[in-house]
TrEMBL record:
It comes from Cyprinus carpio (Common carp). GO terms for molecular function: symporter activity. It catalyses: an L-amino acid tripeptide(out) + H(+)(out) = an L-amino acid tripeptide(in) + H(+)(in); L-tyrosylglycine(out) + H(+)(out) = L-tyrosylglycine(in) + H(+)(in); glycyl-L-leucine(out) + H(+)(out) = glycyl-L-leucine(in) + H(+)(in); a dipeptide(out) + H(+)(out) = a dipeptide(in) + H(+)(in). Belongs to the major facilitator superfamily. Proton-dependent oligopeptide transporter (POT/PTR) (TC 2.A.17) family. This is Solute carrier family 15 member 1. Keywords: Cell membrane, Glycoprotein, Membrane, Peptide transport, Protein transport, Symport, Transmembrane, Transmembrane helix, Transport. The chain crosses the membrane at residues 35-53, 65-85, 91-113, 125-146, 166-192, 204-226, 286-304, 368-387, 570-590, 602-626. It holds the Pfam family PTR2. One of its GO terms (cellular component) is apical plasma membrane. Its main location: membrane. One of its GO terms (biological process) is oligopeptide transport.
């Protein structure tokens, strides 16, 4: 009795306000992990574009290859947890891999490691690329591997009578996911925009990737700290493996009996009857019916996940000046989670009930079709924005052309002849033609020294007479430069517009006779600042988010309602595969499509999704909704279960299904 009392007291100490203390470690762990993942992902495509200096297509391809891998590895994580290590050990081991990946990724962004000549640019890009690719692979294994384990492990901490607390836990759990993703998408672009470096000051990618790495380490430490309080269940076997073996046997058996002498069977899965239980076969039939509907779905994710790639790159050619607030291109991604938190309750509480009251049959499959069309409209909107952006961009030389920039620092107009017979009349301190394309998301400037002696300029190298500085990247806003020659100096100030490029011509006037030489500097605007405002992207974000609410949330709810409860992991695996395939499609189009205009690519994706949505609507029209519990009960009856036992089992199943539907409703709302 004494030992029982001690045990009871110990169990009571493990709870706080009716909740297991262990879940607080799990919730904090999830917040930190999601902050780490989404923070890293928010600045990833810009790191590819402006640190590794990849073009838009390659940056987009590698970004989507990484995202696709993140959606494939959860299947591996679920199999490891259910069949081998259990959820706790899987989370621990893969979180270590995850943290190593984040640290590796942060190290790869330190330009000073290979910047031997201290010019602010890495001298060995191969080193940085190899390190970043290794980091991304480890991150994909980690984040994907723990994805199916953490929420389920949290559910294991509750006892059977704690259904209300369990629902609250899932609400808080998915709130932490949204909070982590929202905050990180706001904060990491701000960190990236800072300047840091040992020898030269550049955009601070080490800080932008370093903070997510620290959060991932904290996530791991917090999770380990609660180790002694967790309820740890043993691996129970993975249903996906059983399903695959059953399907494989049915195919093999059907091939063996392909002769016309063997009687046909009602369904090809019936060829597994010789070895597998009829109930399992019936459950697999229901799952396959849903998975067949998944075939057109990847195209939605093809469009949806371009928020973090093509749309972010589009924002780099736009102005982010919102009166007193400056929004960076990667921060525009926060519009999606903000709209999700706004639109989900509006849809659930207002729009869908209103449609139902109007007597319209807005079935789940119809919602998904409408969601696809909203996503297509989002890309039409993106194409219209791109057309407006293209109107403001200069004409750059093609791959077979070059451009020459001629600067006249002489005091009179000059006539320059370029072979064979092209004449340029250049006024004093004037410029003809532009040299090359530069990155729109930054501001660059170059000084031309027309003075007769060396000049030192703040944050730039010393300039010899009749020489130029390299193009230098500066931040938006007012910037001050100090020009110095010996003891003489003056200060030059300029307000820089986002995405612009300038050349500053220093006159030959001597400091001795003109101390205010900076006032005589001639400014040449090589490229105008971005003039199309980022606010024009808000409609496309609204449309894609509306499509997400109708497609993604509804799709999972429909899937779970049309398959047995023990097959939900199989459906989740299928759903994640549609995400992965969608990102692979982007990769293929980016590398092989090579459309000359970006707006044309947007319209191509929109057209493909409209075509796919028509195909999906036809498939949905012929789909017959089923009741999995009723089919299972019928199979059990055929197997000879007693009516009383069957009725009791059916009632228990319906009660559990109802609890899980309530629970799933909470989950999906928060997602």
């Amino acid at each position: 009795q004494h030992s029982s009392a001690i045990k009871k007291k110990k169990e009571e100490d493990m709870f706080c306000c009716g909740y297991p203390i262990s879940i607080f470690f799990i919730v904090v762990n999830e917040f930190c992990e999601r902050f780490s993942y989404y923070g890293m992902r928010a600045v990833l495509v810009l790191y590819f574009r402006y640190f590794l200096l990849w073009d838009d297509d390659l940056a987009t391809s590698i970004y989507h290859a990484f995202v696709a891998l993140c959606y494939l590895t959860p299947i591996l994580g679920a199999i490891i947890a259910d069949s081998w290590l259990g959820k706790f050990k899987t989370i621990i081991y893969l979180s270590i891999v995850y943290a190593i990946g984040q640290v590796t990724m942060a190290i790869s962004t330190i330009h000073d490691i290979t910047d031997a000549n201290r010019d602010g640019t890495p001298d060995n890009f191969t080193f940085h690329i190899a390190l970043s690719m290794l980091g991304l692979i480890l991150i994909a294994l980690g984040t994907g591997g723990i994805k199916p384990c953490v929420a389920a492990f949290g559910g294991d901490q509750f006892q059977e009578h704690q259904s209300r607390q369990l629902n609250t836990f899932f609400s808080v759990f998915y709130l932490c996911i949204n909070a982590g993703s929202l905050l990180s998408t706001l904060i990491t672009p701000v960190l990236r925009a800072q300047e840091c470096g040992i020898h030269t000051q550049q955009q601070c990618y080490p800080l932008a990737f370093g903070v997510p790495a620290v959060l991932m380490v904290i996530s791991l430490v917090v999770f380990i700290a609660g180790s002694g309080m967790y309820v740890k269940t043993d691996p129970e076997g993975n249903i996906m493996w059983s399903v695959c073996k059953c399907i494989g046997f049915a195919i093999k058996n059907r091939f063996r009996h392909r002769s016309s002498s063997y009687p046909k069977r009602e369904h090809w899965m019936d060829w597994a009857n010789e070895k597998y239980d009829k109930l399992l076969i019936a459950q697999i039939k229901m799952v396959l019916k849903v998975l067949f509907l998944y075939i057109p779905l990847p195209m939605f994710w093809t469009l949806f996940d371009q928020k973090g790639s093509r749309w972010t790159l589009q924002a780099t050619t736009m102005s982010g000046d919102f009166v007193s607030i400056l929004i960076s291109p990667d921060q525009m991604q926060t519009v999606n989670p903000i709209l999700i938190l706004t639109l989900v309750p509006i849809m659930d509480r207002l729009i869908f009930p209103l449609i139902q009251k109007c007597g319209l049959n807005f079935s789940p499959l119809k919602r998904m079709t409408v969601g696809m069309l909203f996503a297509a409209m989002a890309f039409v909107s993106a194409a219209l924005v791109q057309i407006e952006i293209d109107k403001t961009l200069p004409n750059f030389p093609s791959s077979s052309e070059s451009q020459l920039k001629v600067v006249n620092t002489y005091s009179t107009t000059l006539n320059v002849t370029i072979s064979p017979n092209e004449h340029l009349l250049i006024e004093s301190f004037g410029v003809q033609l532009h040299t090359s394309k530069h990155t729109y998301s930054t501001i660059s400037c170059m000084f031309v020294n027309g003075y007769t002696a060396d000049l030192n300029i703040t944050n730039l190298d010393s300039i010899e007479p009749s020489a130029t500085t390299n193009y230098t990247l500066v931040n938006q806003g007012k910037r001050d430069f100090v020009l110095r020659h010996g003891e003489q100096w003056c200060e030059f100030s300029r307000k820089f517009g986002f995405g612009a490029s300038y050349t500053f011509l220093i006159p030959s006037t001597d400091f001795l006779y003109s101390p205010d030489i900076c006032e005589s500097i001639t400014e040449v605007e090589d490229m105008k600042p971005n003039s199309v405002h980022m606010a024009l992207q808000i409609p496309q974000y609204f449309l894609i988010t509306t499509g997400e609410v109708m497609f993604s949330v509804t799709g999972l709810q429909f899937s779970y309602s049309q398959a047995p409860k023990n097959m939900k992991s199989v459906l989740q695996a299928g759903w994640l595969c549609t995400n992965a395939v969608g990102n692979i499609i982007v990769l293929i189009v980016a590398e092989l499509g090579k459309l000359p205009k970006q707006w044309a690519e947007y319209l191509l994706f929109a057209s493909l999704l409209v075509a796919v949505s028509i195909i999906f609507s036809i498939m949905a029209y012929f789909y017959t909704y089923i009741d999995p519990a009723e089919i299972e009960a019928q199979v059990r009856k055929e197997q000879g279960l007693e009516p009383e036992e069957m009725e009791k089992e059916t009632i228990e199943m319906e009660e559990k299904d109802e609890d899980q539907k309530n629970e799933q409703g909470v989950k999906q709302t928060k997602i």
